[in-house]
Amino acid sequence: MKSEFNLRPAQPEDTAAIFELIQALAEYEKLTDAVTGSVEGLQEHLFGSRPYVEAIVAEYDGRAVGFALYFYNYSTFLTKPGIYLEDLFVLPEYRRQGIGKAIFKYLVQLAMERDCGRLEWSVLDWNEPAIAFYRQIGAEILADWRICRITFLLDE
């Protein structure tokens, strides 16, 4: 497969394709039960009156084959905003073509243009291919930090 892909900011018409990629990511991570959101919720949070997240779409021959979803965080020590990469996923059959690396370059450039102090993300401890990839692109894996979370479950 020849490497001809395109990266671009997500548009409202990409929402369903991004949601399908989120479901494929959940399947890869063996977390399909954790996907409780909807295309409509994603659409609102990406493009509604108060956007909470932004996304990049990776296309191959006009088909969405990967995405990155990110938002701002803040470093009090740096007194600068940062970009937190919530998810990056490329369909397995399109990996090893430089798409993931290109997404990181895109995000680093975006962070620098927006005067951010850092780009951060999390990785599952069992995901050795991802950890190896992140190390290869120069990322530091922080061994002494743990993610803490409170999840709000609302009765519907």
CATH superfamily: Gcn5-related N-acetyltransferase (GNAT)
Q: Give the mean pLDDT.
A: 93
CATH architecture annotation: 3-Layer(aba) Sandwich
Number of strands: 5
Q: Termini, distance in Å?
A: 46 Å
Broad CATH class: Alpha Beta
As for the number of domains, it is 1
Record the strand order, biggest sheet. Answer: 1-2-3-4-5
Low-pLDDT ranges: none
Portion in strands: 25-35%
SS element count, helices: 4
Rg calculated over all Cα atoms: 16 Å
Q: What is the chains' assembly state? A: single chain
Q: What is the approximate shape?
A: globular
The helix/strand order is: EHHEEEHEH
Under CATH, the topology can be stated as Aminopeptidase
Largest sheet: number of strands, sense, barrel closure: 5 strands, mixed
Q: Structural class of the helices, strands and pairings?
A: alpha+beta
Helical amount among residues, as a percent range? 25-40%
Structure report:
- The chain is 30% helix and 25% strand.
- With 156 residues, the chain is an alpha+beta fold.
- It has one domain (5-136): Aminopeptidase (3-Layer(aba) Sandwich), CATH 3.40.630.
- Strands 1-2-3-4-5 form a 5-stranded mixed β-sheet.
- The protein is globular, with a radius of gyration of 16 Å.
- The chain starts with a strand and ends in a 20-residue tail after the last helix.
- The mean pLDDT is 93.
